[in-house]
Amino acid sequence: EVQLVESGGDLVQPGRSLRLSCTASGFTFGDFGMNWVRQAPGKGLEWLGFTRDKASGGAIEYAASVKGRFTISRDDSKSVAYLQMNSLRTEDTAVYYCTRWTGGFSYGSYWGQGTLVTVSS
Amino acid sequence: DIQMTQSPSTLSASVGDRVTITCRASHIIFTRLAWYQQKPGKAPQLLMSEVFNLERGVPSRFSGSGSGTEFTLTISSLQPDDFASYYCQQYHSDNTFGQGTKLEIK
């Protein structure tokens, strides 16, 4: 059974950094691209970026809204994807989800339960 | 960047109604369009991909259509479990979600 478990969410002050993890199981992690998506309270879904699988080149792409502040990485040996978030702002408060690609398509066929990040002084 | 415009933002309907949600892309995305359902406090669930390919277990009352830049999600006969929020997503170039549609009980 495919499982994705996000962790690392916390209450942090503006300007600080936080790293989220997405631990995968039930499939060969290195064979799949992974997305990060967030949802602010009461708002819609926002795609943040993805990492392709290494066989597809391993490229990482970001949404313009977070490019330069957020960094996506992966450790295939540990079946974990990461989202490093720097210079956090109050508007980054959201539930953060990781999702798994299907084949070469980047839509989210599997989602984790999400982890809450609250940015507040 | 490709923008996705989803409408309506809120839809009030009754059990048994046929409803349609529309998504318009700012550029041609061919068939790279997915739909999700989200219930309060839960992660979104994939309903269909490639415009109309239903995920396993999704009831056949859900259907998708369109190509290019105009797409629709139709629920043929609303059931109580269908009252939720729905999102479209393009995955032709990076990813973009529509703003969402909250389907409410009339």
Quick tags:
heterodimer; A: 121 residues; mainly beta; seven-stranded mixed sheet; four-stranded antiparallel sheet; globular; B: 106 residues; 50% strand
The first-to-last residue Cα distance of chain B is 36 Å
Kindly provide the radius of gyration of chain B, computed on alpha-carbon positions and rounded to a whole number of angstroms.
13 Å
Largest sheet of chain A: 7 strands, mixed
Number of DSSP-assigned strands of chain A:
11
Alpha-beta classification of chain B = mainly beta
Mean pLDDT of chain B: 97
How do the SSEs of chain B run, as a string of H and E? EEEEEEEEEEE
* Radius of gyration of chain A, whole Å: 14 Å
Instruction: Tell me the greatest interface.
Output: A-B, 21 and 22 residues
Shape of chain B: globular
What best-fitting shape of chain A do the alpha-carbon axes yield?
A: globular
Q: Any chance you could write out the topology, listing elements then pairs?
A:
The complex is a heterodimer of chains A (121) and B (106).
Chain A: E1 3-7, E2 11-12, E3 18-25, E4 34-39, E5 45-51, E6 60-62, E7 70-75, E8 80-85, E9 94-102, E10 105-111, E11 115-119
Parallel strand pairs in A: 2-11
Antiparallel strand pairs in A: 1-3, 3-8, 4-5, 4-9, 5-6, 7-8, 9-10, 9-11
Chain B: E1 4-7, E2 10-13, E3 19-25, E4 33-38, E5 45-49, E6 53-54, E7 62-67, E8 70-75, E9 85-90, E10 96-97, E11 101-105
Parallel strand pairs in B: 2-11
Antiparallel strand pairs in B: 1-3, 3-8, 4-5, 4-9, 5-6, 7-8, 9-10, 9-11
